Amino acid sequence: MHISLRYHVASIIGVLCSLVLGILIGGALFQDDRLVKEQGMIIAELEGQFSQMKAALAELTERERLVGESWEKVRGTLVNGLLANETVVLVSDPSAVEWGPIKAVLRSAGAAYRELSWQDLMEAEDLQADLIVAWLGEAALTAELLAAMQELIAAGVHVTFLQGLTDKGSFPELTALCIDMADTFLGELALVFGLAGRAAGHYGIKNGASRVLPEVDPGL
Length: 220
Fold this sequence. Notes:
By secondary structure, this protein is α/β, with parallel strands linked by helices. It has helices at 6-29, 33-79, 100-108, 118-123, 143-154, 185-196; strands spanning 87-91, 112-116, 131-135, 158-162, 177-179, 201-203.
């Protein structure tokens, strides 16, 4: 789920390809020497930009690979044991989110986890959970879900809401941990630090965030 600039670069390349195709079609429909010459110059320029974009895409892809490998190497050191003997309940709509990176960082921190849908959460009679992490994304909680989460918080359950870096929308006004960049390395780190310290508040880089990462008790 990690965000990368390669998708942005790829979309630009797609636009350039569409422009070239449009110019070629226009040249076929309107046979004019001057127009054809100008089209040739434009195509040559676009080909140069296309080559630059391909090189940039390759560089970004390699850079992301190296960053990913580095994160995997240091992740265990940064979060090791912070969530030992904890079980985290991961809540989302079915197939709405890929929990893989979150599960990996939870394992590195020593936590176990299980998954529930929002419907499962509502129907559970005995949840037996101390830590709930819910992927909110851009969705707003229904009044029924909002009341259910408030009830869990009042019962002593620590609740976390997650958004991706590009997700819009606001977090519920509840005493909960809210992370607005959960699909990034910093977001994964913020999640573990926040769960370990039972933190509440908004963390990340979007408007309203108090800081990027929650503080961690040195004694943990």
